[in-house]
Design a protein that fits this description.
This protein is of the alpha/beta class and 356 residues long. It has 13 helices and 10 strands. The strands form 2 sheets. The protein has a 6-stranded parallel beta sheet with strand order 2-3-4-5-6-7. Strands 8-9-1-10 form a 4-stranded parallel beta sheet. Strand 2, helix 3 and strand 3 form a beta-alpha-beta unit. The radius of gyration is 19 Å and the shape is globular.
Length: 356
């Protein structure tokens, strides 16, 4: 298949499945090379760093694959208080981060107002963009947080297969998740979705559906990582996803959506010591070091074998920067906003000025 044409961005399901399943080494290398070419043309050699603060491992949901699920009675739970979260964010900004990611289980302990005040406090003390990854809340919460200064919201859809989604998320539907993503986009967030690769019962056609769904949603960010079975969950004895298939999906998404921000995920790092660096060669352009205080990190046990639990924030930052440079990339010094989002925002402002 020729991947050097403008119509690359219009690959259909059959073409995507063919590339995901191809055993032709030259074809797979052409896919990788094309994705890297598109990424370098769009972003240059910059890789953007996002500092993750995993501030609570409490969750009201019971997703079958997740170590934080409420039925996991063997997990020691924790919650950071808002002052501690604030100080962690300020320290991260002092290390040079221009984006802070506030991530937790779906934990209603923190009220909408608590999160809004935290966002305002961080913005008052640090020149950073803020990404939220807090699960499903209502539109009023999302609105209050973007008004407080939040910039982005990450809510992975996990799978585009409605039946598989319903099995993995008891009491929830894929359409409900998509409604949240559409609401976030309408409110003005830079929106991130994403999926796991290697879920039990998932097909390559499902993965093709994930790619086309993210294109349909016109996401600004996309987190793609391997499914890693957690023995403390009902899926603990199933097989996980492969590095090869994750890299192929990253490459295809880069080709389909040249301006999307794609992280080399922490989960991907469990698949090999250089897996995240390899992802840069396949189109990834973001990496997300963990700056959570070390005493909490082992308890944010989404899956076994999670990397970077034994380095403090400064050590982790230094290590990640060195890895970026060793991969032949440079550390992006800006906020790393989605170029598509910024362009569309500027167009909306210009249109409003014309109307006025």
């Amino acid at each position: 298949m020729n991947l050097n044409q403008e119509q690359d961005t219009n690959l259909d399901v059959a073409e995507i499945v063919s590339l995901l399943e191809s055993s032709d080494e030259s074809e797979v290398e052409a896919l990788r090379a094309r994705a890297e070419q598109v990424c370098l043309k769009t972003f240059g050699r910059d890789v953007y760093l996002r500092a993750i603060i995993e501030f609570s491992n409490c969750c009201r949901q019971d997703c079958l694959y997740c170590g934080l699920r409420r039925s996991n009675a063997g997990l020691k739970r924790y919650r950071m208080n808002t002052d501690e979260i604030l100080e962690t964010a300020v320290r991260a900004a002092g290390l040079g981060y221009k984006t802070i990611v506030l991530q937790s289980g779906e934990d209603p302990y923190y009220s909408d107002a608590d999160i809004a005040r935290l966002i305002e406090a961080i913005k008052s003390r640090a020149d950073v963009a803020i990404t939220l990854s807090l699960g499903e809340r209502d539109a009023a919460a999302y609105r209050s947080w973007i008004e407080a200064g939040a910039n982005r919201y990450l809510m992975r859809h996990e799978t585009s297969n409605p039946e598989l989604y319903a099995r993995l998320h008891p009491g929830h539907t894929l359409e409900q998740r998509l409604d949240h993503l559409r609401t976030l986009k309408a409110l003005g967030y830079q929106v991130g979705a994403g999926n796991m690769v290697g879920l039990p019962g998932q097909t390559t056609k499902d993965i093709a559906g994930d790619l086309l769904l993210m294109k349909e949603l016109d996401v600004d960010m996309a987190g793609i990582g391997p499914f890693i079975p957690n023995p403390s969950t009902p899926l603990g004895d199933t097989e996980g996803g492969t590095l090869d298939l994750v890299l192929r999906e990253i490459a295809l998404l880069r080709i389909l959506m040249p301006e999307v921000m794609i992280p080399a995920t922490t989960a991907l790092g469990t698949k090999g010591s250089n897996a995240r660096e390899e992802a840069f060669r396949w189109g990834a352009n973001v990496i997300m070091p963990n700056v959570t205080p070390m005493r909490y990190r082992p308890m944010y046990a989404l899956y076994p074998g999670k990397i970077c639990t034994d380095q403090d924030a400064a050590q982790c930052t230094s290590c990640v920067k060195a890895r970026v440079l060793a991969a032949g990339r440079t550390v992006g010094m800006g906020y790393g906003h989605s170029p598509k989002f910024l362009r569309n925002k500027a167009q909306r402002v210009q249109a409003q000025e014309v109307i006025q």
